[in-house]
Each structure stands twice: as C-alpha cells, then as structure tokens.
C-alpha cells in the first residue's frame, strides 16, 4: 500500500468490495500511529508554550530578562517557540508535514544540545526519550504503511 495522498496511511485506505461498495479500512497500527501523533502533539504544544513563557518572562525569576540574554539563546528560544507550535498543530492533524516538522524540531534540539550544551542543556534521559520517540515514530509509520501487505 503506497501513499497516494497526504495522510492516506493515517486516515485509512479505501477498499472496494465485490458488490461495488467502497469501505474505509481501519487497522490497528494506523490507530496506534494516530494516538502517538496526538500524544506527541500535546507534549510539543506544551513545549512550545513553555518557550513562549521564557520569551515573555513568565518563568525563571532568577534569570535575567529575555532581552538581556545572549543573542544565540534568544534565536534558539524563538526558533523552538515557533517550530514546536507549528509542528504540534501538524501532528494533531496527522499530516505528513507535521511529522516532518516534528522530526526537524526534535533532531535540531538534539544536535543543538550536543554541540552547544551551555545554551540548550539536555539530560541524557531526555535525549534518550527524544531518540526513543523518533524511533517509535518511524516504527509506527512503517508498520502502518505495511500493515495491509
């Protein structure tokens, strides 16, 4: 079963019966993938809102104001504030572009945390969670794609 349109794997493929009727086939892995995307969407929405809270100074009383921080910290925070929210919407809609933006956001956060740990600290447990989520996404997408085969 190939992807004939945007989100066909997630919305269910159509199968034709001998009687000529068309019925939507809903399968287990597609449901797993949709639920996983919705859970990731909620988490990434919270992550994006937390980035906006940092920008507006709602968290971190002991930290200097956002405008007084390093320009590189400001750029990283604004990037994730926008990217995480857009990716969260795409994940909730179970669209292909949502998964791509989420992968871009997650991998860029891992790379920035690895190369610039002072600007974007990340614990090994959180990095492992990101890698596990990425692998689970690929596994669920592959399984949903190949389930009917």
Helix content: 55-70%
Shape, principal axes of CA atoms: elongated
Low-confidence stretches: 1-6
Q: Figure out the total of helices.
A: 5
Give an overview in words.
This protein has helices at 8-11, 28-56, 71-92, 96-115, 124-146; strands at 13-16, 22-25. The protein is mainly alpha-helical and 149 residues long. A two-stranded antiparallel sheet has the order 1-2. Helix 2 packs antiparallel against helix 5 (124-146). The longest helix has 29 residues, at 28-56.
Task: Give a summary of the structure in a few sentences.
The chain has 149 residues and is mainly alpha-helical. The chain contains five helices and two strands. The longest helix has 29 residues, at 28-56.
Essential attributes:
149 residues; mainly alpha; two-stranded antiparallel sheet; 66% helix; disordered N terminus; 5 helices
Could you give the topology of this structure?
Layout: H1 8-11, E1 13-16, E2 22-25, H2 28-56, H3 71-92, H4 96-115, H5 124-146
